[in-house]
Amino acid sequence: MKVAVLRFPGTNCEFDTQYAFEKLGHNVEIIWHEDTTIPADLDLIVVPGGFSYGDYLRSGSIARFAPVMKAVSQYANDGGKVLGICNGFQILTEAGLLPGALKRNADLHFISKYQYLKVENNNNSFLNKYNNGDILHIPIAHADGNYYIDNIGLAELEKNGQILLKYSNSNGEIESINGSVAAIAGVCNKNKNVFGLMPHPERAIELLLGSDDGINMLQGFAS
Amino acid sequence: MKAIVNVYLKQGVLDPQGKATHHALNSLGFDGIKDIRIGKQIIIELDGLSKEDAMKKVTQMSETLLANTVIEDYTIEIA
């Protein structure tokens, strides 16, 4: 699989993401935000975590207008697969490639810890290696992860199976740890080719790190 | 000419910072507060535009970048 990982000023998860995909035997290229083209024959574009443009104005709001994003939108609109992790999720919602928006956490804290997640829908290339109801243990690290969508939008997400992951406890009981509507931790678009989540699967790829529950999300794209 | 854009979370979208500030003011003994919304103010200095064109341009800026209309409303004042 050929993977492009974007890099904006303030991105800080590009090398972890590269490491994770290379560990799985994939070919990874890091793309600078000022590039106006993306490599040919890509299988996946990853918008990684970090604090692009210092999170000024709103998280992701300025990165969304970086030169490379035109090509990314085009690629996504043509059916190409795009994954946004944490700040990448924020950028993709700001760009309108994913529904909803991410607000400041309800308790105003930056939450950085291992978090349980429940798999809501595995009928997509991101979670096809998991079963619905699986409970995963994956790090989160964000201040603006409070997912918002209005009631009409939420009904659409539910109807189309676009809710990927929810925050839960170790028994799989749903818990909105940051104020997110319906405890949503990750969603995809209607066509199921653009994915976004606040947790960091690339940080849960080796037992040495405390969990390898995230690796099958990254590998899912290869199958 | 100056454009003053106020951006704040829509009614019905919970404002965590407003809520925390509301609690803090209550615990300091300030009562009679019904609700607090916290927004941001963006002051734009403009040059060589009519008032009407300024309004048009700043509306475009607000829709494109300054506000995320999924969660935020904005007001514009040209002064």
Give a written overview of the molecule.
- The complex is a heterodimer of chains A (223) and B (79).
- With 223 residues, chain A is an alpha/beta fold.
- Chain A has a single domain, classed as Rossmann fold (3-Layer(aba) Sandwich).
- Chain A has helices at 14-23, 68-77, 87-94, 151-159, 215-220, and strands spanning 2-7, 27-32, 44-47, 82-85, 101-103, 111-119, 135-142, 146-148, 163-168, 184-188, 194-197.
- A 9-stranded mixed β-sheet of chain A has the order 2-1-3-4-11-10-9-6-7, sandwiched between helices. A two-stranded antiparallel ribbon of chain A has the order 5-8.
- In chain A, a hairpin with a 5-residue loop joins strand 10 (184-188) and strand 11 (194-197).
- Chain A is globular, with a radius of gyration of 16 Å.
- The mean pLDDT of chain A is 97.
- Chain B starts with a strand and ends with a strand.
- By secondary structure, chain B is of the alpha+beta class.
- Chain B has helices at 16-27, 51-66, and strands at 2-9, 39-45, 72-78.
- The model of chain B has no long low-confidence stretch (mean pLDDT 95).
- Chain B is built from 2 helices and 3 strands; from the N terminus they run βαβαβ.
- Chain B has one domain: Mth169, Chain: A.
- Chain A binds chain B through residues 57-58, 61-62, 65, 93-94, 100-101, 103-108, 146, 148-149, 179, and chain B through 9, 13-14, 16-17, 20, 65-66, 68, 70-71.
